[in-house]
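Retro notes
What went well: the complex prediction finally ran end to end.
Inputs used:
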Amino acid sequence: DADVTQTPRNRITKTGKRIMLECSQTKGHDRMYWYRQDPGLGLQLIYYSFDVKDINKGEISDGYSVSRQAQAKFSLSLESAIPNQTALYFCATSDFGVQGRGAEAFFGQGTRLTVV
Amino acid sequence: TQLLEQSPQFLSIQEGENLTVYCNSSSVFSSLQWYRQEPGEGPVLLVTVVTGGEVKKLKRLTFQFGDARKDSSLHITAAQPGDTGLYLCAGLPYNFNKFYFGSGTKLNVKP
């Protein structure tokens, strides 16, 4: 089983609909992230969470919301989907980085979302 | 504006050639990571460099962290078709709060 699992893997939805992408992890990490990937733009951070009670906005949080239901679960919602939110979405987890060792991000397999 | 700039953006080479990918920033990082991503998959970590001037080797891949901890390079010797993919660098600042990713280098190695 994958350490970081995203559902669904693919989703087509209509403009204006609310949609939720789910992420669960078995790494035991406190830190979880949601990224969006568009061609030529690398990974853009949407939201991140350092524990269940800690939620932080990333670079492109407008139009998105998140919920950290448990240490292992972090979901991303699009309140009212629009076509320019069509992209590849990744959930990631990491341990707490320390001086001299850095930190590693573990990614899920991604959700390909199309808004029509 | 990307905090980390990667170059080149695209690279198409023949099997057996050498190549270098660059990751540059005006910011200082506590560590820098390189990831490789294949189509339809999430990025997977290749290496983490944590000391200024550090050089790490992973088979035919050589990674270097700049002395000032602002830049890094990835050199591939005798590229193979299996090296094809998107290479991403990511920097972790000293507050260790989040990763900053470069825009990626898409490498295609032709047989």
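What we learned: DSSP finds no helices and eleven strands in chain A.
What to try next: split runs per interface for comparison.
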